[in-house]
Design goal:
Bound molecules: histidyl-adenosine monophosphate
Structural class: alpha+beta
Mean pLDDT: 94
Distance between the termini: 40 Å
Shape: elongated
Oligomer: single chain
Number of strands: 16
CATH class of the largest domain: Alpha Beta
CATH superfamily of the largest domain: Bira Bifunctional Protein, Domain 2
Number of helices: 15
CATH topology of the largest domain: BirA Bifunctional Protein, domain 2
Largest sheet: 8 strands, mixed
CATH architecture of the largest domain: 2-Layer Sandwich
Low-confidence stretches: none
Number of domains: 2
Radius of gyration: 27 Å
């Protein structure tokens, strides 16, 4: 016997039966993006390692511990994208589209890769829907991205969402704040976890993001960044809050929210869902006014977020709102030797309906069982009798009712059957 393979730890197959919920979320995300005037961008799944090291920041856990990095055959260091923003910024710079005052509203969807310890809601290959507004400093852009994210989650039917916002300042006010934290933490350096001792040297703000309980205790007494904002950052934050108020979005101010990526300036936000347990962030983002310049482009400000598709699906399931598969397929069962006529009929119907055709030479019983298995609403039976009479038997798989229909009247009979009450879900 050959070796049996398994999906790698932290990766999952999405099988029929489950894929419908994914597609429903993906389609809703696409609709939501275009309702807000966003256009899709697709960037490669791997990039030069240096892009993420610089963009995401080499003091972050993502870059230090979680990247899938490998040399290619020419010895170049490549990395499977752990997130989408750095790639989008690189693409805009490369295409000459990152220009001051030129606005881009972009969205993307697809797999991201992080080598973290897998647990509920945390995978090594996961999927994001993300959106970025590039080319404006306006606080209304921050508000728009939050509305875009929260709007989708609400449209999907999620309740129990908590929107958290904070400001992490900018290059004017943050260095002094970082120094303030460093000075406050230095006397307790030895009590911090090993990672945080290093963070204290490289980027003290990262200590605020540590999940180790004893560190959290130490950190909770530190002065918040919000008290150290410079005037322009404070005005920006006030304008974002006013915008959210005007749009009717309920939010909490979370002074401890620093996010796990280094490129943020000013606004940082996350949307949490109460039933997700430890990995409760469904989505998160913020402003990153320095990233494009950091990656070699002009000074072009931007803001955006990403939403985790797996976590959104888990939250929907927890609330009993998992989108159900659509049951509108027609299954065409047929008698032996009627393959040619069945194909002809299926082709005719496919201009209007989804039709699955039985492929085996077998009895009616197994064919109808198969119809049931794929979740068809209606089965059409083309037996010898029917074929001779120019008719088809239409069986409503919900009610079990069946009747013979002339082929010429088939479409209106199908219409009637599909429009009838859905007997099963
Ligand atoms: P992030 O907070 O690292 O931000 O990820 C965004 C979302 O992706 C999370 O809230 C979570 O739902 C999902 N996610 C992250 N890691 C995992 C994982 N290991 N397994 C399952 N889901 C996960 C970013 O990625 C930024 N690029 C967001 C952004 C866009 N900021 C500005 N523009």
């Amino acid at each position: 016997m050959g070796k049996k393979f398994q999906a790698m730890r932290g990766t999952r197959d999405v099988l029929p039966g489950e894929i419908e919920a994914w597609q429903a979320v993906e389609e809703a995300a696409r609709r939501q993006s275009s309702r807000f005037g966003f256009r899709e961008i697709r960037t490669p799944l791997f990039e030069a390692t240096e892009l993420f090291a610089r963009g995401v920041g080499d003091s972050t856990d993502i870059v230090r511990k979680e990247m899938y990095t490998f040399p290619d055959r020419k010895g170049r260091s490549l990395t499977l994208r752990p997130e989408g923003t750095a790639g989008v910024a690189r693409a805009l710079i490369e295409a000459g589209l990152a220009r001051p005052h030129e606005l881009h509203r972009l969205y993307y969807m697809g797999p991201m890769f992080r080598y973290d310890r897998p647990q509920a809601g945390r995978y090594r290959q996961f999927h994001q829907w993300g959106a970025e507004i590039v080319g404006t400093k306006s606080p209304w852009a921050d508000v728009e991205t939050i509305l875009l994210l929260v709007g989708l989650l609400v449209d999907l039917g999620l309740e129990g969402l908590v929107v958290k916002v904070n400001s992490v300042g900018d290059e004017t006010c943050r260095p002094a704040y970082q120094e303030k934290i460093r000075q406050a933490l230095l006397p307790r350096r030895d009590e911090l976890c090993e990672d945080c001792r290093e963070r204290l040297d490289r980027n003290p703000l990262r200590v605020l993001d540590c999940k180790v309980p004893s560190d959290r205790e130490i950190v909770k007494d530190l002065p918040p960044m919000l008290d150290s904002l410079c005037d322009p950052c404070r005005e920006h934050f006030d304008a974002v809050k006013q915008g959210l108020d005007a749009a009717g979005v309920r939010y909490e101010i979370d002074p401890g929210l620093v996010r796990g990526l280094d490129y943020y300036t000013r606004t940082a936000y996350e949307v949490h869902h109460g039933k997700l347990g430890a990995q409760s962030a469904v989505g998160g983002g913020g402003r990153y006014d320095g990233l494009i310049q950091l990656l070699g482009g002009p000074a072009v400000p931007a803001v955006g977020f990403s939403m985790g598709i797996e976590r959104t699906l888990i939250a929907l399931e927890e609330e009993g709102r998992k989108p159900a598969p659509e049951r509108d397929t027609i299954y065409l069962a047929r008698g032996a030797g009627l393959g040619g006529q069945a194909v002809r009929l299926a082709q005719k119907l496919r201009s209007t309906y989804a039709v699955a055709l039985d492929l085996e030479e077998r009895g009616l019983g197994p064919q109808l069982k198969q119809a049931d298995r794929i979740g068809a609403r209606v089965a059409l039976i083309l037996g010898e009798d029917e074929a001779k009479a120019g008719e088809v038997t239409l069986k409503d798989l919900g009610s079990g009712e069946q009747r013979r229909v002339r082929e010429a009247e088939l479409e209106s009979a199908i219409e009637q059957a599909l429009r009838g009450p859905v007997a099963r879900t």
